[in-house]
Amino acid sequence: MHDTSRYRGHARALLALGLPLVGSQLAQMLLHVADTILLGRYDVTALASMVMGSSYFFFFFVMGTGFGNAVIGMIATARAQGNQTQVRRDTRMALWLSGLYSLAVLPAFLFSEQVLLALGQRPELAAGAHSFLLVAGWGMAPSMFAHVLRGFLSALERTQIVLWVNLLSLVVNASLAWTLIFGRLGMPELGVRGAATATVTVQFLTFLGFAFYAHALPALRDYQLFRRFWRPDWPTFAAVARLGLPVGLTSLAESGLFIAANIMMGWVGTIAVAAHGIALQITAIAFMVNLGLANAVTVRIGHFFGARDAQALAEAARTGVFLSIGFSAVAVSLFLALPGPIISLFADMTKPEAAEILALGVQLLTVAAVFQVFDGLQVVALGLLRGVHDTRAPMWIALFSYWAVGLPVSYLAGFGLHLGGIGIWSGLVVGLVVAAGLLMRRFWRGPALSNTAWTAVARRPGRSA
After folding, report:
1. 15-44 confidence digits (pLDDT tens)
2. Which one of 20, 218, 375, 446 has the largest count of C-beta atoms within 10 Å of its C-beta?
3. What is the pTM assigned to this prediction?
């Protein structure tokens, strides 16, 4: 029989590490929620434009976050092995890769209107989203850098600062967005461009806040994170890319399914896009809880993997899964009990189109209650696998689950069966169920927990860098 006190210890450690990360994820999510609420009260076309533009930005953002997500497990493993030099090398090369990626995708934002028109979006939505993206695109680099530094600080269990910086960013963003969207306090009325300007400003401030903390805190000075930052380290560059690219593609596979749902909602109509955007924001808030937990799980698993403690690794993994199920059950209860009041928080109910948005949004939240548990399980499974540096197989599982299964179901149910938005969201349910099952199976029955996996964990000696 397993010692329950050990599981209680793992739960306390995961919550101590994970709750600040959950809070920071929710703060990041609330940045977009604040924009959604403000634009929902400003103009429904502006709201739909921001939803479309944010989805377009997010498509490229999640691909780039692979480097920051991958180094969480790498840094936790190197730290467990007492290899400070490798911690610095991993982080620095992740920053290099993030910067190069940001430059590579910049043209996608400058020519976003043409891309959206080619995808069949209505001209007014494409033009509005393009106006948003011309500003928002310049925030890709600072957001990528901030994400890597967030992973660095999380892996070193400095999660409190991550929470406080993101909470401060939330306050700054809400104030700036209100001022610039509506033209308050003598500022010009910029509408959707005001929301983008506020977001980019906050992305720069978040990056600078993390960088200053990582450089100035005495306890972190031994890592000398920015020492000879310009010096290349090609073996580590290749190692981070080898782990990070599959992580980015895995995240892109899942988010790509939701973005494809956005595009298909655009074919249904502006009301459908607005209702979809609101419902997606609400479900994303619940998802952020599991995402923060998944990052904490990656740190803990990466530590035990580096220390070669198989028993503690398995116990921490089980604890993470149970916590995820508990968090998801709370979200399901709220979605089923209070769908109308929750949707009403995000839309101006005095507008003539509000009743249609509310009706469709309530239906979508009911569907979301079905996939909530599986959404949490799949992201925690990814956190477990990243902790043991297993990223390639999860990429193929995600591509199969979301694009070979989920996307066809969304299209066929939405348009073949003429179920509209409900049909499109049914594909999300199927894709997440398949992904959760296969990813959990990969961790518990795959090579991650085999004896051969432990022989692959070794210190990565190298020159001082």
Report:
1. 888 889 888 888 877 777 787 778 877 777
2. 375
3. 0.81
